[in-house]
Amino acid sequence: MERKFHRRAGAKRRGVSAEGFTPAVDIGAGAGFSGDRTDGAGPVVDALAASPRPAFLMYEMLAERTLADAQLARHADPDAGYSSRLRAFLETSLAKSHEAGIRIVGNFGAANPRGAAAEVLRLASDLGLGRIRVGIVEGDDLLAAGGDARMTVGGDSDNPPAAANAYLGAGTIAEALDAGADVVVTGRVADPSLALGPLVHCLDWAWDDWDRLAAGTLVGHLLECAAQVTGGYFADPGPKDIPDLAHVGFPIAEVSADGDAAITKPPGTGGAVTLATVKEQMLYEIHDPAAYLTPDVILDLTKVHVAEAGPDRVFVSGARGHARPDTLKVTVCRAGGFRGEAGISYGGPGAVARGRLAESIIAERLAPFGGALAFETSLIGLTSLAGAATPADAPEPVEVRLRLAARADHRDVVDAAMAEVEALYLNGPAGGGGVRRHVTPELNTDSMLVERHLVAPRMTLVESLDEL
């Protein structure tokens, strides 16, 4: 179960100015999504190693789609289901982090945290690191839990879920660090909890010290997308220029005992940390700024103060918190048939007219499938985003790509739709080329809330493959 409310009681937080700020813990981002750059953690580890404070490296690598893909992989191979790029990420950071005493927390366990732990231990052995302790956080998989948890997410329905994963909080991460874990591997946890766990572990915050938990959650929220807060996703030439994005630095948070933080990046790296980059990331995915719900606390951003504290350094304070929700969010995945995508390109004079002719051919050829096939077409470069809302006087491009997206309950139906795009080579407009097509099984994802008592997080500490 999650840790009980047994840490020291929290004194009332006082406002802290940037001038009086004293950092106590450093947390750096090693990745912001599963497809991130594997070398981004290098400069972060160097900066953390030079810090006199306790330091942690955080890998945030899960999204709903990523977890659904991991579940498909696990169903095909029980030994799979964790991040296929785990080794590539940790090869650049594990040895130096271990030597410097930097502890790593990552959700690269996805659908198989134990498989990820085994991969970490194998890598540590290959690198000659000797004894390494891996904390495994489990309990998010409600189908594996069985009983009432499984029934609550529809385990007995006509289309039972292929996966149902609850968003765990920071408690079991802190427990693993308390137990001495060098690396903590999780499955589905709330993204900010990857930072909050280390902060509670180091700073001994109480689990009902809502303001400090909110401050730590804000730190995790600012770090979770890595280079998004240092100018990567922020960049827009002209309105929002950012230097040297080819070498953009991943963020580091220097955090005080009260949870106030300075957001910065490693020296000598590209990108930028500014008021604007921090504000954009702070509001990212926030539906209600006064009530951002997480498993650990309800974060209130309405009194947050953001101030420049030097070049590439922004001070953040003033987060407030309310008691955590009684329920936890669960992502439920169910089999959804098959999805296919195919494309063919047209260029030169008349490209748009030929693309539209190809669209009409595809629509007529697929009409006989009726309700057995759902599909749509678009011309990338002309209507793929705006669709029917594309202005009539929009400039006509000299090249377009016809895209067909289709789904059906049966693979052979989707395969037949994809074949119609390839047939356009000889049976459609002139000058088509570059056909690509693929079909994949689909998991439909949905979200629901479950009572907290149905979810039982647990932690296991291992030092060898024999313990798994």
Features:
468 residues; alpha+beta; ten-stranded mixed sheet; five-stranded antiparallel sheet; 13 helices; 28% helix; globular; disordered N terminus
User: Given the C-alpha coordinates, what overall shape results?
Assistant: globular
Mean pLDDT reading = 93
What's the count of strands?
Answer: 18
Please give the radius of gyration in angstroms: 25 Å
Distance separating the two termini = 20 Å
Strand content: 25-35%
Helical amount: 25-40%
What order do the strands of the largest sheet run in, or round the barrel if closed? 11-12-8-7-1-2-3-6-4-18
> Main beta sheet, described?
10 strands, mixed
Structural class: alpha+beta
- Poorly predicted segments: 1-6
Number of helices: 13
Structural features, described:
This protein has 13 helices and 18 strands. It is of the alpha+beta class. The strands form 3 sheets. The protein has a 10-stranded mixed β-sheet with strand order 11-12-8-7-1-2-3-6-4-18, sandwiched between helices. Strand 7 (252-256) and strand 8 form a beta hairpin.
Secondary structure blueprint with pairings:
Layout: E1 23-31, H1 41-49, E2 55-59, H2 64-76, H3 86-90, H4 94-100, E3 103-106, H5 113-126, E4 134-138, H6 142-145, H7 147-152, E5 163-166, H8 171-178, E6 183-186, H9 193-203, H10 210-223, E7 252-256, E8 261-264, H11 275-282, E9 292-293, E10 298-300, E11 305-308, E12 314-317, E13 320-322, E14 327-347, H12 351-366, E15 374-380, E16 399-408, H13 411-427, E17 433-451, E18 458-462
Parallel strand pairs: 1-2, 2-3, 3-6, 4-6
Antiparallel strand pairs: 1-7, 4-18, 5-14, 7-8, 8-12, 9-10, 10-13, 11-12, 14-16, 14-17, 15-16
